[in-house]
Specification:
- By secondary structure, the protein is mainly beta.
- Helix content is about 5%, strand content about 45%.
- The chain has two helices and 23 strands.
- Strands 2, 3, 4, 5, 6, 7, 8, 9 and 10 form a nine-stranded antiparallel beta sheet that branches. The protein has an eight-stranded mixed beta sheet with strand order 1-19-16-21-13-12-11-23, with no helix packed on it.
- The longest helix is centred in the N-terminal third of the chain and has 4 residues.
- The radius of gyration is 18 Å and the shape is globular.
- The two termini are about 25 Å apart.
Length: about 300
């Protein structure tokens, strides 16, 4: 029996969206995610309302128009083809997404108190970071993190985990506003690279709580699946051998500071010290030309 925090591909759509996670559907207050598939020549008219939005091509290209300004998204063939350009839409904005050749697009959202300008960021400006080492190596596209892009409350990034590796490890949490932690509601959206003959890959994702705030999630995840993290430690995300894993993280919280401050599960934080003597997985970076080395975080 699946957890209430797991949304299987094909089961979480609404109003033309393949995935539609809102504060109302998730029973929280800040974070949202929509994904949409558009056919060649198709367009959709949208309103950001009280949300700020980052539009991220998962596959294909598009044009985003708002209030007389137009940005062309080059996009990419798939989420495993390196970082993509993206567009930011502020709250209380009417906008449209159109595509000549078709594609799939993620709309990362968060409740926003301020209206910031409509902006475009090219793929070449996206920070690509390698975290961890050995079989905990992963590749992070920091397109919408607090230290790389200005937003009101929304934080977003992408993570590529090579087949057989663990990411979001050691398990960590961010569900309290303290000196070392920021309360953030988090959405994980997964895609798994197919194997030979388009065999369908899979992975696993774990969320677990504290005695004070229990939560228990252990799900097999496949392309299009979503896991919600309202609180608690989360990780690892495990990619089955032979199948690379992608996930899109969307986060926002009610605190005044837009920050991603985390604390490790104290039982497992020692794992970080083992990375010092291990090389980064030589398969990384996947389809990317620029990297920075690091060993912290998701």
């Amino acid at each position: 029996m699946n957890s209430q925090y797991y949304i299987a591909a094909g089961s979480g759509g609404k109003d033309g969206f393949d995935v539609a996670v809102t504060p109302e559907s998730a029973d929280w207050t800040e974070s949202s995610l929509w994904t949409i598939t558009l056919a060649p020549g198709e367009s959709v008219d949208l309103n950001s309302a009280e949300n700020e939005i980052m539009i991220v091509p998962l596959s294909g290209s598009a044009t985003v128009t708002s209030e007389g300004t137009k940005f062309d998204l080059v996009g990419r063939a798939s989420v495993f083809d390196g970082p993509t350009d993206f567009v930011y839409v502020g709250r209380d904005s009417v906008y449209a997404i159109s595509t000549v050749d078709g594609g799939r697009f993620a709309l990362c959202g968060a409740r926003a108190g301020n209206t910031l300008p409509f902006r475009y960021v090219p793929a070449v400006d996206i920070s690509v970071e390698l975290r961890g080492a050995g079989n905990c190596s992963r590749q992070v596209h920091n397109f919408g993190t607090a230290d790389t892009f200005e937003a009101d409350s929304l934080i977003a990034c992408e993570v590529i985990t090579p087949g057989g590796n663990w990411s979001s490890y050691p398990g960590h949490k961010h569900d309290e506003n303290t000196a070392n932690e920021s309360a953030l509601e988090e959405i994980y959206y997964f895609e798994i690279a197919p194997g030979p003959d388009d065999s369908a890959g899979f992975g696993y994702h774990r969320v677990y709580g504290t005695p004070q705030r229990p939560i228990e999630v252990l799900e097999e995840v496949r392309s299009g699946d979503v896991v919600l993290v309202p609180h608690g430690y989360h990780g690892p995300s495990v990619a089955a051998p032979g199948y690379h894993m992608y996930y899109l993280n969307v986060m926002a919280g009610p605190g005044k500071e837009r920050a991603w401050n985390i604390v490790d599960d104290p039982e497992h934080t020692w794992i970080r010290s083992t990375w010092t003597d291990q090389p980064v997985d030589p398969r990384l970076p996947l389809h990317s030309s620029s990297t920075d080395s690091a060993s912290e975080g998701a």
